[in-house]
Specification:
The chain starts with 11 loop residues before the first helix and ends in a 9-residue tail after the last helix. By secondary structure, it is mostly helical. The chain has one domain. It is about 45% helix and about 0% strand. The chain is globular, with a radius of gyration of 19 Å.
């Protein structure tokens, strides 16, 4: 008999929020930078993408998804690549025990 417990669960519940996203039908190049884009051009494109995100009913779900999967590219849920990286860095810093950040000895040094 087949062991169905090892099959992946339905994914529709995990992705249905995308059906309601304000970015559906918007050119994806607005959310993802072309190679070499920097400075004012990149800021302008990111700000335009964020305007779409700000009116999106599933912005929170989108941002949470991008953070959960550590999405490395694009504007997701109104957050740029750099903003997500900064948030993840802050989260990592909060999870580091105080003894490792204050110069305390680790158990392997004793």
């Amino acid at each position: 008999m087949a062991d169905f417990s090892r099959l992946p669960g339905p994914n529709a519940d995990l992705w249905d929020w995308q059906l309601h996203a304000a970015c559906r039908g918007v050119d994806s190049s607005l959310f993802f930078h072309p190679e070499g884009e920097r400075g004012a051009a990149r800021s302008a494109r990111e700000n335009s993408a964020k305007e779409v995100c700000m009116r999106c009913p599933v912005r929170a779900e989108c941002a949470a998804h991008a953070l959960a999967v550590r999405e490395p590219y694009g504007v997701w849920g109104g957050l740029t690549e750099d903003e997500r990286e900064e948030l993840m860095g802050r989260a990592r810093n909060r999870l580091v025990p105080a003894s490792t950040t204050s110069g305390g000895s680790s158990p392997s040094n004793n």
